[in-house]
Amino acid sequence: MTGTGTQADPFIVDNWPDFVTAVETSGAYVAFPEGGGTIDMNSVAPEGIQQVQLRCVSIEGNNWNICNLYTVGHGAFYSQSSVTITGLNFLDFYGDFQSEAARFFDSSRDYPYHYTFSLCKFSGLLTGTYNRAGFSVAWVGGGSHIRLHRCSINVRLNGSVKLIYYGGAWNTYYNMADFCNIQISGTSPNVFADKYNYKNCFFSGKCLSKVELYSDSDFNVFNVDFTEAEGFTCYCENPDAINIINTDKLPGVTGGTGFTGVTTEQLHDANYLAALGFPIGVD
To answer: What's this model's pTM, rounded to 2 decimal places?
Structure first.
């Protein structure tokens, strides 16, 4: 590991032990070498990792991959400070949360520590039986928030695992996934059970969960197979929102509050979507 951990001279890491040392350093700036690379956790910790305590303030991934990360009974990361993570990919991870209230990216409910992810990719499997388990967490009041910006997420959620465990209502810029591509699969009926803000996101895959969105949500596309979601409903707290849902993958449902139902053919018709008031293109 090189560097001093300052903004002008960040810690440069290219292996797991140095990465953990760097990110657990209070106030540190951390970066991977330019050009991309891979840390394969199968050769580092095949039996699972101890939870990493994030005390740094910035991680610049430079398109590096951390692959095959495995954790049992607890989350992989726990924030002890607000941290911005850019261009770092977590691929093919597996989290076995068992009966614990664990989140892959976890944090305190008592301190204002925020996760901000930008241009990151996530793929993996999370399983657990407790309904507070999730991919990540957002707490009410003074607690931690999470923002996912221009990220790609492909997760299989089994048992009772949620996409975002949301410990209360908090309408803020920090609690937002925007301009993300999110693919969902798995057996959990709770994927969207906690309301969260999504804006300009594209959802695909297959899901057994109903959909509830918080009030800042707007301009999302749900091209998801919900046919096996028992008692499916879709609802957004903003009744004027324009969220699109493919009704060809949802027999008998035409839409819901804040949702507009379209067919597959209409979903691929830019002029039709524009006529509904749905923005075409990305600012």
So the answer is: 0.91
Of 170, 111, 175, give the one whose Cα is nearest residue 148: 175
What values do phi and psi take at 271, rounded to 5?
A: -65, -40
Predicted confidence pLDDT, tens digits, the chain (283 residues): 999 999 999 999 999 999 999 999 999 999 999 999 999 999 999 999 999 999 999 999 999 999 999 999 888 898 888 899 999 999 999 999 886 777 888 877 666 778 899 999 999 999 988 777 778 766 555 566 788 999 999 999 998 888 887 765 444 556 788 999 999 999 988 888 777 888 999 999 998 888 888 777 889 999 999 888 877 888 888 889 999 999 888 766 766 888 998 999 999 998 899 999 988 754 4
